[in-house]
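Our collaborator T.R. sent over the components below with a one-line note: 'Predict the complex.' Nothing else. No constraints on interfaces, no templates requested, no preferences about which chain binds where. So this is a plain run: every listed entity goes in together, and whatever single assembly comes back becomes the starting point for the next discussion.
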Amino acid sequence: MQRNPQLNAQGELQHLLSIEGLPREILGQILDTAESFVGVTEREVKKVPLLRGKSVFNLFFEPSTRTRTTFEIAAKRLSADVINLNIALSSQTKGESLLDTVANLSAMQADIFVVRHASSGAPFLIARHVKPHEHVVNAGDGRHAHPTQGLLDLYTIRHYKKDFSRLTVAIIGDVLHSRVARSLIQGLTTLGAPQVRVIAPQTLLPSGVEALGVKVFHDMRAGLRDCDVVVMLRLQNERMKGAMLPSAQEYFKNYGLTAEKLALAREDAIVMHPGPMNRGVEIDSSVADGPHSVILPQVTFGIAVRMAVMSIVAG
Amino acid sequence: MKLPDAEQLCEQLAAELRPRLTPSSAMIGLYTGGAWLAERLHALLGLATPLGLMDIAFYRDDYHAQGLHHDPKRTKIAFDVNGRELLLVDDVLYTGRTVRAAMNELFDYGRPASIALVVLADRGGRELPICAQYCGARLDVPSGMRLRLKREANGKLALALEPSRAA
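Returned assembly:
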């Protein structure tokens, strides 16, 4: 059997490409390390010297504000030098291949590549071709995976709920196009969450989604009952143009999270959203800004989680 | 090799520290052994400032060779470091590299008035110009061995000698 491409012969994390196939111990190590970094981010001097002298290249072949910015902040807080590449304006548009781009950056002494790409598997391709001292962190590839988002979701859940072993988690919305959902489901399963539900219309669910170990609901009210954690997914506006959904109003009526529907979940339920939010489409403002929402803490935790990932792969 | 009684050394250190305390004294213990010792000294001395606990994993000088320590603890310092007379507590002083890392981390919290190093045992073998102002015992430990503090189930502290992992 082929070794997991993310791990070295000693089973240590070399690249973070996907949560899929990562052992529970590695997930635990990342979350524990992130917890220590949360302490660093609460200090006046929010920097540690771990990656001093290292270069982190942010390679974003697809637009992103939050993820790119939080990776940049994370790398800077580890004292790395950060180089942001806006690929849409670079050689790729002149026809350079992905691997040639990476080879050139490697010649500029890169240590970590943070890669976001519209094609599923692009970070895996890069990881197969980098030098032994270079590391790849997947910042979202196609519909496939977004492991650091999944990890920060897991971190947030653990922060508020302490333990995964009795949790019911509902993931609601466009699961079909969501790399976030896929990564989170894999992480929750690995960490032993007993019940993960997905709530969505049939048209927004991948076929065979049950194989991921989730329980499918089409009725949001039934699915929300007794949930500890509610994860809303962004409804990508472009989906609305296709034949997948009738209208934003109709979607909000059936699958939008309102205070009235949230009342069906547990009293101490938390509401998460990976952002960017469409208020009034998948989530009502009163919930997004309400007492159950942990959407902004998610962003803050995301920095610590990305610090943990980069310092573990590069160490 | 006969090791001294850690409980006794602890009492001895507390007695030595007591007359030197001032209103701006505060204590910080280094995980894991130093934190145990500091917890004990902090209680014996009845310090008013909360005990600080520090993990120097993010400041180690062997990160590039060894990688990140697997289970870093969260550093907790719940008082303003600026202007404090700090007592930095560790169980065993050896190469001095841990203390160097701890001082670097401390200065990311502020500028203390002074730092004094308190250790239960000094085993020699210094690789940096660092010394302890308060030292329970001086021991001559061969380089292939590791001297460390253990805490038993009943909370009792004891020094232990074992072959070092690298050896």
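Summary for T.R.: Chain A touches chain B at residues 12, 29, 32-33, 35-40, 43-45, 47-50, 311-312, 315 (CB under 8 Å).
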